[in-house]
UniProtKB/TrEMBL annotation:
Biological source species: Clonostachys solani
Protein name, UniProt field: Amidase domain-containing protein
SUPFAM superfamilies with a match to the protein in the record: Amidase signature (AS) enzymes (SSF75304)
Pfam families cross-referenced by the UniProt entry: Amidase
Domain (Amidase): residue spans on this chain: 51-443
InterPro entries cross-referenced by the UniProt entry: Amidase_dom, AS_sf
Length: 479
């Protein structure tokens, strides 16, 4: 179920001794909420050191099967001990003090850890500044104990050929509900990590569906805030117009805790800050937009609507976007993605992401350099996957440098379609839009906030549906 709103192991080695990782026997880490963890830390049931070591041990246990993590922070135990010392002295930094948090591999400047965007050519690169989100996590008392795996280059390398969750850095990540399950992407490892309890919560990013997709396949909550509510300084973005930093967690409350800690400041100054973990109650009117879906999903969606109504929501049925539809996408297919691809090329080039590197081991200064490296280096598996999206972004970027008309038309169209959720809510005088399937395109285009909530898993007799690459898209026991 999707709710959209108006407003806008690289080589780190951790040696654990027997007994190092023990938490109280009754404490089930995989099911623990952030309030549970904070209560346990405050009451002295366990320490941050124990939490970190237990999470790291759990990562090592599941990593061979799911490839959820790209690197473990070799300093995480030392950081945990520092936080424990502060707590013992009666000092806590903030809302997340002592909590281990997973981080998608796009946040630059994290000390000894790599930030690769899933691309082997960025191993060993160093960044000129630290991502603002990292500072906010540190100020809140969190410890980043691992980077999560992701689809290489935000799935803007070879989206038609490379599977979700594949990168030369982490290999092929896999879903947790059946053998060879498509894990979604591009925030793949963050979804898996949240589902398996590899951290208190995980951060991801989304250009178009990169939080909603793994949230669905992993059966967790995926929160994509308004595009600028969380600072994007110091991260790799696919589009400055669409990208959001968000959270994958086991509950809405957990996601709210993390959002409270990382939101506000810089780009988000116009929105102010508030404690999202303390918000209670529902908006008065909920707009229902039904997308053709499986009968089982429709049935469970209706049950979810009944819950909303029982909490006081008024459901307005049969909503229709003023203009946006699949027909519009078909009509404008030749220009629809032009601006997105050009923006990606510009974000990657020397004046932006690659230009922020103070150490650039392979001298990569442009998307053309990235393409050449991808073709040359065996780990990138160019023969198997190609680099169609990178090549298209390069081509369109050069063309639009000379004649920007196609870019301007595409950007204008996407801006117009991005206003559709706001218009829809205004037309029906509603506060939020609820659908049984993700609204990644419309929500992302307008920078709208969106939250993905898992419906029950598909039944045992549900037929298995395979993707063209042979991975399982749908089947029994998959949310």
């Amino acid at each position: 179920i999707i709710l959209a709103f108006r407003q806008r192991l690289y080589a780190a080695v951790m040696v654990l001794k027997p007994g190092d990782c023990k938490l109280p026997a009754h404490f089930k880490l995989a099911d623990a909420s952030i309030p549970n963890l904070l209560q346990g830390l405050e009451s002295g049931q366990f320490t941050t050191e124990q939490l970190v070591k237990t999470y790291v041990a759990r990562i090592h246990d599941v990593q061979p099967k799911v490839h959820a993590v790209s690197e473990i922070n070799p300093d995480c135990v030392a950081l945990a001990l520092e936080l424990d010392k502060e707590r013992a002295q009666g000092q806590t930094r903030g809302l997340l003090h002592g909590l281990p948090i997973l981080l998608k591999d796009v946040f630059g400047g994290h000390g000894v850890m790599n930030t690769t965007v899933g691309f082997s050519g960025l191993a060993g690169a160093k960044y000129s500044s630290e991502a603002t989100v990292l500072r906010r996590l540190r100020d809140a008392g969190a410890v980043v104990h691992a980077h999560t795996s992701m689809t290489e280059w935000l799935n803007i390398r070879a989206s038609k050929n490379a599977p979700n969750g594949w990168s030369p850095v982490s290999g092929q990540s896999l879903g947790i509900f059946c053998q060879n399950q498509d894990p979604g992407g591009s925030s793949t490892g963050s979804g898996i990590g949240a589902a398996l309890g590899l951290g208190a919560a995980a951060l991801g990013t989304e250009t178009a569906g990169s939080i909603a997709s793994p949230a669905r396949t992993c059966g967790v909550v995926g929160l994509k805030p308004t595009a600028t509510l969380v600072s994007r300084q110091g991260i790799f973005m696919g589009s400055q117009w669409q990208d959001s930093v968000g959270i994958l967690a086991r509950s809405v409350l957990d996601a709210a805790y993390v959002l409270t800690a990382i939101s506000g400041e810089f780009e988000a100054a116009a929105f102010g800050t508030r404690n999202f973990a303390k918000i209670q109650g529902l908006m008065d009117y909920v707009l229902l937009h039904v997308i053709n879906t499986k009968p089982f999903v429709g049935e469970k969606f209706e049950e979810a609507l009944d819950v909303l109504q029982s909490l006081g929501a008024v459901i307005v049925d049969d909503a229709t976007f003023p203009e946006y539809s699949l027909d519009v996408l078909e009509k404008y297919k030749d220009i629809w993605n032009v601006s997105l691809m050009v923006d990606f090329r510009n974000m990657a080039d020397m004046n932006n992401f690659l230009g922020t590197l103070v150490e650039n081991p392979h001298g990569l200064n442009s998307i053309e350099d990235v393409i050449e490296y991808t073709k040359r280096v065996a780990d990138e598996k160019f023969e198997a996957h190609g680099a169609d999206d990178l090549e298209l972004a390069s081509q369109l970027g050069r063309e639009c440098d000379i004649n920007p008309q196609a870019y301007e038309e595409s950007r204008s169209l996407r801006l117009r379609m991005g206003m559709e959720i706001g218009k829809l809510l205004d037309n029906y005088n509603c506060s939020l839009l609820v659908t049984p399937s993700w609204t990644d395109t419309t929500a992302s285009l307008g920078g709208n906030p969106q939250i993905s909530l898992p419906l029950p898993a598909l039944p045992e007799d549900f037929p298995v549906k395979l993707r063209g690459n042979g991975m399982v898209a749908d089947g029994p026991n998959i949310p």
